[in-house]
Amino acid sequence: MELSGLQIFKYLPAAKKAEHTNCKLCKQPTCMAFALKLAKNQVDISDCPFAPEELKEKFLHSRKQPQKTVEIDGLKIGGENVLYRHEKTFINPTAFAVELDMHAPDFADKIKRLESFEITRVNEKYKVDLVIIKNCDSDVSTSLRWIKEEDFLRLPLKNATCETFKLTKENLINIRTRAIKEKDENFSEPVYVKFESGINAEEVCAQASYYICKYANMLVFTDFDEALFSTLITLRQNIFTDPQKPLQVEAKIYEFNNPDENSIIFMTTNFALTFFAVAAELENLNVPSYLVVTPADGMSVLTAWSAEKFTAKVAAKTLKKFGLANKVKTRKIIIPGLLAHMKQELQDEIEDFEIVVGTVEAYEISDFVKNNC
Length: 373
Prior knowledge:
The protein is of the alpha/beta class.
């Protein structure tokens, strides 16, 4: 772990009330000021002529990169520096690779399947990250990122796969722990786990899900299954979202299925996961509709309400800003079911529309529209 300013200060003359306390030879006013700047890498440890060797060793060790980063044609693997994402954040999402044999009779068909596979989730498009080609004796005509097996095996990556799931997970945890806590260079290479052919898809999904969380930098599959990859990509996106930066969309009025002045109107916050869940349901309805998205710093509905980011005044201001009352004859706005307690408050503030309490879950929207609209 990196040393804090206070941990560094304990080694300096001022902390020990020793000779040369706050001598200013480091060009800082006090030892504490030097320690705080050193912790932020704003000064060099050699600037203090009285820094003890023990501090120098500890400081240099703390600044070592725990895990190396390996790059394959723009794909970054590894480079992690924490055990848990809430400590800072995870950096490079677990890469998904598929191994193909160029001499296999269905090689061309498999390449086409991989090329056609793409999913969109929370406004991000995802494909297979890498194709590893066995017995590659010519160039591969594909838009996918690929590498020869022999070149892949020469990369500074460690195969963490063991005989059983239990041993593999223990191996992954041990490697990451040694790399992060001890900064042991023998465990600094990014790691991957390989799934051989013939394993039950449900078992692969369960094991791969665990490895994404702890702590595979890459998963290599010898079988490709679209449903499996869609599931794992969804999990990976959730795990590698920076918890300090909520995903959010632009606050505005979104249109679905060519709405007109008589279309139904929904309202929610600009939290990306909520927005795309609702948007997907509205698109699939094949019913013209509007979705009013209010600014809420990317917070979910209840979080935004509790933080006073979603208020009746904010909702009214959003409607006025985009002139919704002048665009539609519809006079009902459907709000999330979780905000049922705000119905009257919203009604008092938004006099041009009737406030209707909608569903708690996005998947319930279809039945709600059929029964109420």
